[in-house]
């Protein structure tokens, strides 16, 4: 049953496009493609102010696959420090969530 559901999930959009293409030709496919592009650009323009740059940090201290990390016995604390949310990066309508955590 699980395999059947996955095949239906993958096959339904393909079957729909085949049906639409055979009934209406390539015009409907291009209209749908244009609609997806228009929706994407519209959402990009609407949410442009809320976008933040992607920052990927690499941890040079992390062990490689298959290697075990050596325990540092000098560190007494076994808890990770909690990250403080940066309120300047949050949208204005979500800042109230973290306002009481100061």
Please, could you describe this protein's structure?
This protein has a domain at 1-53 and 85-102. The chain is 47% helix and 0% strand. It has 102 residues and is mainly alpha-helical. The protein has three helices and no strands. It has helices at 2-24, 26-46, 95-98. The model has no long low-confidence stretch (mean pLDDT 75).
Quick check: average pLDDT? 75
What is the strand tally?
0
How is the quaternary structure best described? single chain
Q: Identify low-pLDDT runs.
A: none
Structural Rg: 25 Å
Overall spatial form:
elongated
Q: Give the amount of beta strand, in percent.
A: under 5%
Topology as a string of helices (H) and strands (E): HHH
Number of helices: 3
Distance between the termini: 50 Å
Please summarize the sheet with the most strands: none
Q: Helical amount among residues, as a percent range? A: 40-55%
Main structural class: mainly alpha
Region (Disordered): 58-85
Keywords: Membrane, Transmembrane, Transmembrane helix
Transmembrane segments: 28-47
Characteristic key phrases:
mainly alpha, 102 residues, 3 helices
The gist of it:
Residues 58-85 are annotated as: Disordered. This protein has 102 residues and is mostly helical.
Blueprint (SSEs and pairs):
Layout: H1 2-24, H2 26-46, H3 95-98
Helix pairs in contact: 1-2
Keywords: Membrane, Transmembrane, Transmembrane helix
Transmembrane segments: 28-47
Region (Disordered): 58-85
């Amino acid at each position: 049953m699980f395999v059947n559901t996955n095949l239906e999930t993958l096959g339904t959009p393909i079957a729909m496009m085949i049906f639409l293409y055979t009934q209406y030709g390539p015009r409907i496919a291009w209209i749908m493609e244009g609609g997806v592009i228009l929706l994407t650009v519209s959402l990009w323009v609407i949410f442009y102010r809320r976008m933040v740059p992607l920052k990927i940090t690499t941890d040079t201290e992390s062990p490689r696959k298959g290697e075990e990390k050596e325990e540092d016995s000098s560190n007494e604390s076994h808890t990770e420090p909690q990250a403080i949310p940066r309120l300047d990066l949050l949208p204005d309508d979500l800042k109230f969530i973290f306002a009481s955590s100061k």
